[in-house]
Amino acid sequence: MDLHNKQLQLSMSKSTRQRCNNEWMYSDVPSDITIEVDGRTFALHKFPLVSRSGRIRKLVAEHRDSGTSRIELLNLPGGSESFEWAAKFCYGVNFEITSLNVAKLCCVSDYLEMGEEYAKDNLGSRAETYLDTIVCKSLEMCVDVLQQCENLLPLADELKIVSRCTDAIASKACAEQIASSFSRLEYSSSGRLQMNKQAKCEGDWWIDDLSVLRVDLYQRVMAAMKCRGVRPESVGASLQNYAQKVLTKKPSLWNASAHTKADLVVNLIEHEQRLVVEALVSLLPVEKLSVPISFLFGLLQRAVMLDCTIACRLDLERRIGAQLEMATLDDILIPSFRHTADTLFDVDTVHRILVNFSQQEDSEDDMEDISAYESDSPCSPTQSALLKVAKLVDSYLAEVAADVNLKLTKFMVIAEILPAHARTTHDGLYRAVDIFLKAHQGLSDLERKKVCKLIDFQKLTQEAGAHAAQNERLPLQSIVQVLYFEQVRLRNALCCSYMDTEHKPMHQSWRISSGALSAAMSPRDNYASLRRENRELKLELTRLRMRLNDLEKDHVCMKKDMEKSSSHKFMKSFSWKISKFSFFTRSTSRGSSSPSK
């Protein structure tokens, strides 16, 4: 019974649709022309068509001598649905023009030559009027039109439908941003007008709307926005949103059938995502901090995995190197996606990023930074970035050192890429070298000495020095160096206990105690380091004095025990021998014959 009802409803819907499709034609006049579009035939009449369509008029004139009344329209934009709207318009049937069909109407009117030269208020002029006066005033409607243009290229581009919509979107977004900026203006306590940075910016509501566009049209919209002066932060936020929605979902540019091979589907997916990544990289703002560095690393991993162009990857590496001090260890641990790679992580890419960072630091070192001495921070921005990157590199080396396939040359080239003053302590580098020696036990003595030369044992802390002195994996020469510097550190600590720390010579530019090379720092950093080292030395001297007091007490107790246990005769003999070495008795010398009093 239910199946019978469904079949009845289906037959009724078919008959209703057929009646609706034919009700706009002249039912009492037999058709004199048949037009075929994409396998669908339309039995129509010549007069209403040729009165408004220049193309059909020419085709009818060409087939007049042959006597045929059947015409096939090839490559009609929008297919049979667009032609049905055009035919209804020729028959005078009213239908609504919306943002979902105006692009097709513009293209089909151009294809059928339905301009003003054939009839007044023709389909082409009406669609163009709606596009200019209605669609271009709304950002959402422009996005709808651009979605329809995806299947109408390149004709939609030739008719400037795409350019008009992209310019309208860019203008609308820029205007919204300006209005939002004005709403965030407020008067300060001094009566001056200033921007409230804590207020939420509501002028970027269009970001989610643009994520539905295909990548080529999205790229054109964002390029137009950048030309209009949209904020780099807004552009970056839109790029992140688009990447998150497009790169994490199944691509829509292909329609996989049941007979499609798996490798072909994979290739199509990779091709689409490759286009998306390269487009996003080309749209990145030139301003620093416009996008998070984690997003740049995510794009770089995708670019490496999808084998994007070399220019795309180099651009990402350069951008990451410019703000590497903000990266984390998880960011730079880039897996090796190539099958031919012999290491677990992509060490070559990280090396190129560090090269970009070092070149940036070299260029900044050539310029004087006067404001660095006036800063409240203990380090200048450049020195602070170096310290952060040095710790990041040491942590990275400790992670990749456990890979048995990592070559010694690659390990050393990353460890040596930063300048000497970048590391105030070599504890992290020592840990990485120790892990590398443990994972590569087949190294020769020469290679072990070579890798241990990376460590400046003067810059090891007391705990790291104690560990290194007992580390059997280190070469004997390195252990001797560790013991020597520990001895020098202890001797300096003892000497400093008898000196006035407030009147130290200014030429002492480095200290062994902390292992930090103060000469490589700025004067402000040098002064702070010296004060810190002085505190450490005072603490060490206090410990030594307490130890000396304990030793003196032990000596007194030992002497008392010896006096109780020894006999009186032994003590007299011992006292007589000691009296010979008395420091208070003047011994006879050459030229003196009188005894002391």
Automatic annotation (TrEMBL):
<dbReference type="InterPro" id="IPR027356">
    <property type="entry name" value="NPH3_dom"/>
</dbReference>
<feature type="domain" description="NPH3">
    <location>
        <begin position="204"/>
        <end position="489"/>
    </location>
</feature>
<comment type="similarity">
    <text>Belongs to the NPH3 family.</text>
</comment>
<dbReference type="GO" id="GO:0016567">
    <property type="term" value="P:protein ubiquitination"/>
</dbReference>
<dbReference type="Pfam" id="PF00651">
    <property type="entry name" value="BTB"/>
</dbReference>
<feature type="domain" description="BTB">
    <location>
        <begin position="31"/>
        <end position="99"/>
    </location>
</feature>
<dbReference type="Pfam" id="PF03000">
    <property type="entry name" value="NPH3"/>
</dbReference>
<comment type="pathway">
    <text>Protein modification; protein ubiquitination.</text>
</comment>
<dbReference type="InterPro" id="IPR000210">
    <property type="entry name" value="BTB/POZ_dom"/>
</dbReference>
<feature type="coiled-coil region">
    <location>
        <begin position="527"/>
        <end position="561"/>
    </location>
</feature>
<dbReference type="InterPro" id="IPR043454">
    <property type="entry name" value="NPH3/RPT2-like"/>
</dbReference>
<protein>
    <submittedName>
        <fullName>BTB/POZ domain-containing protein</fullName>
    </submittedName>
</protein>
<keyword id="KW-0175">Coiled coil</keyword>
<dbReference type="InterPro" id="IPR011333">
    <property type="entry name" value="SKP1/BTB/POZ_sf"/>
</dbReference>
<keyword id="KW-0833">Ubl conjugation pathway</keyword>
